[in-house]
Design a protein that fits this description.
Number of helices: 6
Strand order of the largest sheet: 1-3-2
Radius of gyration: 21 Å
Length: 155
């Protein structure tokens, strides 16, 4: 089975995305905002870099640019002057909310165009996809668990 590539650049939803991009909010910025939202609203720089899959120096540069645009602020926790935490500003949360709303409305509009038979096929396909992903995750977890048991406790 082949999935046909799709050029989404001319779609209606891209106008909302274009507006965010013109305001200086990139997809990388949204990823940072989403990570912060999903992890308690504030993270140490090192943990944020880890979640984003980038180096701390790259995360620092990204956060510098976001701070210049008023999307995040840096905090220094009391008692630890070396640690730097990052949290989103109100305008960043508004941008993330706008993107979420755009995705939700787009998905709802698309689902409204499907008849019951198409919705059943979609549900069945998604169920199959989730089961396949769960199988891959289980298979990948087994070698790690086996290695951990065979090494024994670490001192």
């Amino acid at each position: 089975y082949e999935i046909r590539p799709r050029d989404w650049s001319s779609d209606v939803c891209s106008s909302d995305l274009d507006e965010l991009l013109r305001a200086g909010v990139s997809m990388a910025h949204l990823q940072v905002i989403w990570q912060l939202q999903c992890n308690g609203g504030e993270l140490p720089m090192g943990r944020l870099a880890e979640l984003l899959g980038i180096s701390v120096s790259n995360a620092t540069g990204l956060i510098d640019r976001m701070e210049e645009r008023g999307l995040v602020e840096r905090l220094r926790p009391a008692g630890d002057r070396r640690s730097v935490h990052v949290r989103p500003t109100a305008s960043a949360l508004k941008a993330a909310e706008a993107m979420e709303l755009m995705h939700t409305e787009t998905n709802e509009t698309a689902l409204d165009r499907l008849d019951d038979e198409q919705l059943d096929r979609l549900a069945a396909g998604l169920t199959d996809w989730i089961e396949a992903l769960e199988g891959v995750i289980r298979e990948r977890a087994i070698p790690h668990a086996t290695r951990a048991r065979t090494r024994g406790p670490q001192s």
